[in-house]
Amino acid sequence: MTGAPPPAALVGYAREADPLLREFLARKGRDLEGLPVDLRPVHEALTDYVLRGARERDTSHEHGRDPGAHPEQVMAVLVDSNVILDVATENPEWSEWSSEALARAADSSVLVINPIVFAEVSVGYARVEDLETVLPPDVYRRDPLPYEAAFLAGKSFLAYKRRGGSRPVPLPDFYIGAHALVAGYELLTRDARTYRTYFPRLTVIAPGER
Q1: Within 13 A of 183's CA, how many CA atoms are on the CB side?
Q2: CATH of the domain at 103
Q3: Is residue 18, in this structure, part of any structural domain at all?
Q4: Which residue in 36, 45, 71, 134 could disulfide with 1, CB within 3.0 to 4.6 Å?
Q5: Does residue 103 lie in a domain region?
């Protein structure tokens, strides 16, 4: 970081952001003209803001419920489409790793997919019935994409574009990472680079780690 004035693009990033980001910056007492050149501090602070709001909403939803009616919380792992496709297509390089990683995750956690993963896997199938055999509901729990995750995904993607990413990263990758982070899930993926860069607090299961 530096105390020097930020480039015009960075000031524009903050000024063009939606009211929630402007409100966040105001609460933190940060002057737009004095933002750090590196976007990461702003992005990480915004992540804190979004996660705190998600937790507060979860708590308010639980207030007043019968504690005995709430099921015991279990660990969950959001599965990236590349892992599922490795197994489904019998990828000669990665199918073994992906199969074993899925089996290990299923032993101790609930496997989760969201509409983004479902859509990405669907590309190779002509009928939804065929897709259902690859993503059976009794194996993969289907979660909706939280609005907080969509918000954070958009801001993370904007940070990536503003920083001039050296390789193309599609917006759906940011949806997947943000969903796992906001929901408190681990993420099983074969390509951890983007997730580690823009969601550093996310627990990632990737080749060479487990």
Answers
A1: 26
A2: 3.40.50.1010
A3: no
A4: 36
A5: yes
Q: How far apart are CA 60 and CA 57, in angstroms?
A: 5
Q: pLDDT tens digits, the chain, 210 residues: what are they?
A: 344 434 444 445 455 554 555 555 555 544 444 444 455 555 565 666 556 655 555 544 444 444 444 444 569 999 999 999 999 999 999 999 999 999 999 999 999 999 999 999 999 999 999 999 999 999 999 999 999 998 898 888 888 888 776 667 778 999 999 999 999 999 999 989 889 988 989 999 999 865
The residues pairing with 79 across neighbouring beta strands, listed in sequence order, are 188
Q: Which one-letter DSSP state was computed for residue 37?
A: S
Range of the domain at 111: 73-210
CA distance 53 to 48: 9
**Amino acid at the residue 49:** Y
Q: Is there a domain that residue 63 lies in?
A: no
Three-class SS state of 39: coil
Question: How many domains does the chain divide into?
Answer: 1
Residue ranges with strand state E in the chain: 76-79, 110-113, 140-142, 186-188, 204-205
Structure-token pair, residue 120: 């990405």
Helix (H, G, I), strand (E, B) or coil at 186: strand
Please classify residue 42 by burial: count the beta carbons closer than 10 Å to its beta carbon, then call 0-12 exposed, 13-18 middle and 19+ buried. buried
Using alpha carbons, select from 110, 123, 101 the residue that is nearest to residue 71. Answer: 110
DSSP letter assigned to residue 202: S
Amino acid code (one letter) for 110: V
